[in-house]
Predict the 3D structure of the following.
Amino acid sequence: MPAMHIKLFEGRSREKKRELAEALTRETCRVLGCAPDAVDIIFEDVRKEDWATAGKLWSDRD
Amino acid sequence: MPAMHIKLFEGRSREKKRELAEALTRETCRVLGCAPDAVDIIFEDVRKEDWATAGKLWSDRD
Amino acid sequence: MPAMHIKLFEGRSREKKRELAEALTRETCRVLGCAPDAVDIIFEDVRKEDWATAGKLWSDRD
Amino acid sequence: MPAMHIKLFEGRSREKKRELAEALTRETCRVLGCAPDAVDIIFEDVRKEDWATAGKLWSDRD
Amino acid sequence: MPAMHIKLFEGRSREKKRELAEALTRETCRVLGCAPDAVDIIFEDVRKEDWATAGKLWSDRD
Amino acid sequence: MPAMHIKLFEGRSREKKRELAEALTRETCRVLGCAPDAVDIIFEDVRKEDWATAGKLWSDRD
């Protein structure tokens, strides 16, 4: 029953998310030996102005 | 001090969320014996293109 | 497909969690009109020394 | 490697988030003795209609 | 900067987590075109008595 | 109503968490202009074998 929450910068296309969901599910099932139905993935888009590393917003780095 | 984060498909009305928040808080207080003030609930809307089960986006199932 | 993550102070019995999972699932299905199979709940025990409100750990209030 | 997820009501300006990210990172490094690069912060805006305390949406309190 | 939080039933070995972290990072970089350093994964073990589907704890299904 | 979830490597003392909770709450109130009561912080200890960066568990780096 792995449940994955994946935060990533906004702007990824639906095609990329589709491909990523497929790949992560396939690899998870291969390694853990679980059924695909058991893998649940949620993508959460994050704006660069809402993500900071080392105290600096990513929107201030571009 | 239960804190609930609830991810659900986007599109639920404010009325439904209001009713759900009331019901979940009431049941939590009844079972755990805590005060209503202690129950904090956050709803997080998820687009169907951001949620995958069995490696397939829910937006691709409709 | 509601997915609930519920943080609560450690120490609740399995019986309480069982009863709470049943009640929250029943109410969610009633309000949102979803199937019970679609409701996923994860409880996360939190120690009082890991939870602070108003800048004060709950372990320091007892 | 502290990773902070901070949920707050929507409406805070980018300037406030910038200032908050700086302050939280500085304090975390001071207390824990870690390098700034190790501190990752994500802000998550929450609408008042998506946050309930004591079973009541915050949008219903205003 | 994908950050993944993965909840899974407790009991997986360190070897499985190591292999899974490698595979998920590799696939994420391949699909999204990001650097491996940007991928952060946290595993969170969940006891079967803390996970319910359809209102029933998984510890009650075994 | 900021709610902070902070994941950090296990091993920090209660004293460090107490000091960090105080400092983060103080800074949050100063920047956002909110009351201390509104700030809720949860620390989540993570084992080094459960945290990977660049596809490598932190327990394999020591």
About this structure: Chains A and F do not touch (no CB pair under 8 Å). Residues 3-60 of chain A form a domain with the Macrophage Migration Inhibitory Factor fold (CATH 3.30.429.10).
